[in-house]
Amino acid sequence: MKRILTCSMLLLGMYQTILAQVWVSQPKRADMWHENPSLSFQSGQSTGIIINPQLTFQSIDGFGYTLTGGSADVIQALAPAKRTNLLQELFGTQPGQMGISVLRIGVGATDLDGEAYSYDDIAGDVSLRKFSLAKAQKSIIPLLKEIKSIQPGIKFMATPWSPPAWMKDNLATKGGSLATEYEVIYAQYLVKYVQEMAKEGLSIWALTPQNEPLHPGNNPSLLMTSGQQNKWIKNHLGPTFVQAKLKTKIIIYDHNCDKPEYAIEILNDPETRKYVDGSAFHLYNGDISALSTVKKAHPDKALYFTEQWTGTKGDFAGDFMWHIKNVIVGALNNHAQTALEWNLANDSNFGPVTPGGCTECKGALTISKEGEITRNQAYYIIGQASRIIPTGSVRIDLQGLPKGINGTAAKRPDGKIALILQNETTNKITTNLNLTGKYAVVAIPEEGVVSILL
């Protein structure tokens, strides 16, 4: 059902009319990202939602996904023109395009690759002479280069799922811990990865030392306790990054919100914290407020939300609403500088996947063997924010939200204000938006989400 909202406003101290754009998503009606004309602002102040651009919080790096090796394979397999059109849709910044601004990539294989591998699988190669990005040259690197040509400011966050198996105490891609005798070599391995990617013209903006360090049951995976990660960063990874003069940020933890103490323990170490930009979280356990717990303990350190899946058995509307509440609104309101969903794309069988990897992870896109593209929950979850909140925006204060409404707001680099308002109730909620001496009436549809650009 189409809802028409008209909007123009005169900002205080300015004498020009500004049209605000409005987009509505109602997942139960399969009506997603429907553009509606304007809200009408008038002079005065009313009860309702108060937008306060003067009270600012964290800067926002952006929104996106993990580009696994498997997702790179299925996208790269598209016909060239179709692939380019898709990448323009995803990463372009023109009206109608998604403007994805952050991509997380594996250092070697993730569990959504066709096989488990590292970039140096030659046992005992402590000089790293056999280090090679050859496996990434098939799909990942060409795709990243094409994406960068579309979105030059794209930020790449790299994450290993496992060190090379020969560097681990169990000599396997799954589980085990980093062997003490290879702690120095592994730090050098990650430096070499950043340097070799730079030679390809692909700058690594940030690196998390280990994906889900408390989940050694995946393939690939690694057990790395907070004590182990702290010691390794302090004695090896941090100093090796400094010696190599890398500008890549080190972001710790990269696991669930039920263990904020993992990040806090590391940041409590005065020697380690000087190498660390911040900490990253997923939400398969715990509560999104854990990010604020870490922020309170270490207000000078950044926070990132880096992964949440949608599954093959999930409900489209239920997934969309839960992720908007927690991954988008919740993460931003708890100081996250990124909000990333899990896998960007997979095939019709939800692969490729390693033996023992996730067989129920649904990508933002499903791409069939024939090249047909289906846009799934995660596509719309990220798009609800990425289309209106670009890199460099700053979260601003939003108060007076009615019961049943979740919301967040940001001031963009161009001075415009973006809002996301979510109605969890089964009834339409009408309220007022107040900004700089003006107000407008806004109707937020039942079980729906509204994105507004003022």
TrEMBL record:
Query: What keywords sit in the KW lines?
Result: Glycosidase, Hydrolase, Signal
- Quote the InterPro entries the UniProt record gives: GH, GH30_C, Glyco_hydro_30, Glyco_hydro_30_TIM-barrel, Glyco_hydro_b
Q: Does the keyword Coiled coil apply?
A: no
| UniProt-recorded Gene Ontology molecular function terms | hydrolase activity
Please report the stretch or stretches of sequence annotated as the Glycosyl hydrolase family 30 TIM-barrel domain: 60-357
Q: Which Pfam families match?
A: Glyco_hydro_30 (PF02055), Glyco_hydro_30C (PF17189)
The signal peptide annotation in the UniProt record is 1-20
Glycosyl hydrolase family 30 beta sandwich domain span: 392-451
- Keyword Signal: yes or no? yes
Q: Which family does it belong to?
A: Belongs to the glycosyl hydrolase 30 family.
Q: What is this protein called?
A: Glycoside hydrolase family 30 beta sandwich domain-containing protein
According to the entry, what is the taxonomic lineage of the organism?
A: Bacteria, Pseudomonadati, Bacteroidota, Cytophagia, Cytophagales
